[in-house]
Amino acid sequence: MIELPELDRASLLSWTLNTLKKHGVRPSKKLSQNFVVNPRLISDVLSLTSYEDTVEIGCGIGTLTIFLINRVRSLVCIEYDERLIKIAASIVRNPRFIPLRGDALATGVGRPQVVSNLPYHVTSDMLITIARDNSVSKAVLTLQKEVGERLVAKPGTESYGRLSVIVQLLFNLKIAGVYPPGSFIPRPKVASSLLLLERRRAYDSVIEKVEHVTRALFSQRRRNARRVAESRLSINVEVLTRIIPSDKRVFELEPEVFLALAKELAST
After folding, report:
1. Residue 36 assigned as binding residue
2. Which parts of the sequence belong to the Ribosomal RNA adenine methylase transferase N-terminal domain (predicted)?
3. I need a labelling partner for 221 at 20 to 30 A (CA). Which of 76, 183, 204, 249 fits?
């Protein structure tokens, strides 16, 4: 019989270390592998999930998966590391659990709910992949605290950027918790945030243009926004004058301004 951990730190830590040792696995720095051992973080993730068909991106050895499988309708795990997906498959014995070895950036998501402790090295790309997939209505994501702050950042702040604009236009966002580096082993250098994203707008041709507009304008984030737009976007000057305040720099523009510019491009 496979021994599963209890939802307390001592049990999680002991179980994780023993499982890694048993299977001869050393966490990969290249793949940003960190395994959760904080019971509060796991409980908070579970409290935000709904009874939906769910994808867990990067389930590792199955620590969260063990508890998550009992909270969702079905659970697909997409794990890049073949060593880890074999371990998770051997531990989580449930007909509603489907382990897949693959790259979520390539396979996509395709389910209403996403849960993930996002690997640091693919966080931005994975957020865009989730944003573009209209089958995703909710995402419960653990990521670097700095990235979480970027996602909810307000215009005019240092953290505000193109990722802030795109995600805020598509989702309602909430930082549900902040957790110290010791919440994982190996211990990362930075704290982590838990974010809840709930879709409020579909990704469509206009949002595709938002990606183009933000890429063009944020390349010169501190310059006067109207001047940058005049040089980088194929939009009539009179229209730009109507949409963009004359005194705003790029990083001071509200998400709705980028959306208005995108609508103009999409209509031409």
Report:
1. yes
2. 38-201
3. 204
